Amino acid sequence: MEKKTVFIKDTNRIVQAGKDFDTHFLSYVREVGLEEVVEVTRVADIGIYDQGVVVKIMPGDIQYAQVKDTDIKRIVDETLKKGNVIQELVCTKEPKQLRVVLRNCGVIDPDSIEEYIASGGYQGIKKILSGMTPEQVIEELKVSGLRGRGGAGFPTWLKWKLTREAQGDQKYIICNGDEGDPGAYMDRSVLEGDPHSVIEGLMTAGFAIGATKGFFYIRAEYPLAVERIEKAIAKAYDYGLLGNNILGSSFSFDVDIRLGAGAFVCGEETALIASIEGKRGTPRPRPPFPSVKGLWDKPTAINNVETLANIPVIMTRGGAWFAGIGTEKSKGTKVFALTGKVKNSGLVEVPMGITLREIIYDIGGGLISDKDIKAVQTGGPSGGVIPKEYLDTPVDYENLQKLGSIMGSGGMIVMDEDDCMVDIAKFYLGFCVDESCGKCVPCRIGGYQLLRILNRISQATGTLEDVDKMKKIALAMQKASLCALGQTAANPVVSTIKYFEEEYKDHIVNKKCRSHKCTHLLNYSIMQDKCKRCRICVIHCPANAITGDKEKGFYVDQKICAKCGKCFEVCRFGAILKE
Amino acid sequence: MAKLTRESFDTLVHQLSEKRAESNWIKVGMSTCGIAAGAEDVLNTLTEEAKKRKIEIVIKRCGCQGMCSVEPLVEVHVPGLPDVVYGKVDKACAVKILEEHVMAKKLVNDHIYELRTKR
What is the ipTM of this complex? Predict the structure, then answer.
């Protein structure tokens, strides 16, 4: 008999005590004398969730779910011994992830150009330099339907075409690696894990638009990404894949790195250009668009890291192949940084059109707590929250926009009942207020005023008129701000009001925060029936707000209480009521 | 390194494809997420302990595999066993991987987070 490996995983979150399925399995394997050829291994994760015990047998890739102790005998006798598949136990799960952008991440050594070449790298640029015209490259990209992965979803081919057609003796191509959304790190991982694919994408873009010079604009907070890109560029020069007459053709292309100092606004293209030019990183009105008047007033195309990492695959496998993935208007895959209250946080790459539920439950493994999911935040500070009622929406640019959020660069934060929507709105708005460059009034003052109102609401001094006032200010910011930062800064506020207005009213009218997040709205009191009069809360209270004695019991003086929650933390009898 | 032409590029691709069949290797995810979780220690431990035990195995670095919550990640390829990705690997687990997986050809319990069925 061929040597077999059996993988066992109890996929239910709470592992039942005393169950020990794998021991039973192993003892039966020994009983029938197969221990020499069958290896039994307990795994930590098998990619299936809430399906009881899952057993996977390799080779053969047979997977059984909801397996009971009573099934052990037939699995060993039928499947292991005879190779017969027990149909009623089979659990087939198609892999939900599809790795296009992350094809090499975690597979090749990022510092080795040879490993990149061995895995099909630089084949795209070779194909182009073997006789394609820039127009053909742009046409191929048009067929692919690739849209910008930085957030707005502008068709990449059109951006390249406009830049190609613009008049100018010198043109530039810039890779935007100024990823700054809280909780998003897709671009960092691509730059760190597969730097050559981004370089190849940049070269292709340069060829298509007629640029001989490209820039990487990477934030200085990503030192490892910068180091790996630096090394990769040096290697590419070494091999003649950058510089003059690349691969013996007439195409020459040079690449340089510019570091961003960590201003969020520099991810906006005109501010980014100003920053590369050595000026203060503030946006300017468009038009003229960078494709006409960009870096040093020359026609410039700016593409996001993930967009560029898609290019080499599109060039080698063809635009039609790429267009076969995704939905009607959103093609290809998208990388998301799945974080928040989800079990498997990390990077996921999925075809467009997958639902949020599939991402969170089938890939993310569900919620980390036993609380109910409340909402998903996408698109970072420019995005919005999507309540749980819409989890079955297929993810693409249009659908997310319809829901009041955006695709953004791909941050996806899962929130449960413990997350207060007023608090979330305050967090994201606070981020944008900090990062506003201050050049235009709607963003500078609008954001600040919105934040003041939110603070009032979370401190129990808000009024119902405040909600309408916030809607008005948000509209003004959306319509009149100079750049996308201001135009979208109010999105988290608008979307939380849209879906969770009740929660705002709860804060204002009932002075209650149902998620116990807004400290000013909390009330701490002592439940006398549970209190053992140990005085530990009295000792720890920094405000001396707890008074009383062992006979009469202890009480929190609400006028003095600073709502710090220390008593709640130290009480060993659960006698402090937080509401 | 001489500058590549289209022809010599093809030759290089051909050479690399022939060279690539290493019989056994270990890959450690060394992106920011992995390093923050202690991947450097794991890589050093693997290298040192393999040397001590005179195990001939190629120990390589790679980028982020995506499962950031269970970093550091270590992928092991040894003939005769399925390719697996170990997660939450610390120094002790790294030694186990060498002793059990690589030397004794037995998978390490409770640390496997992904099975690579196809490449």
Answer: 0.92
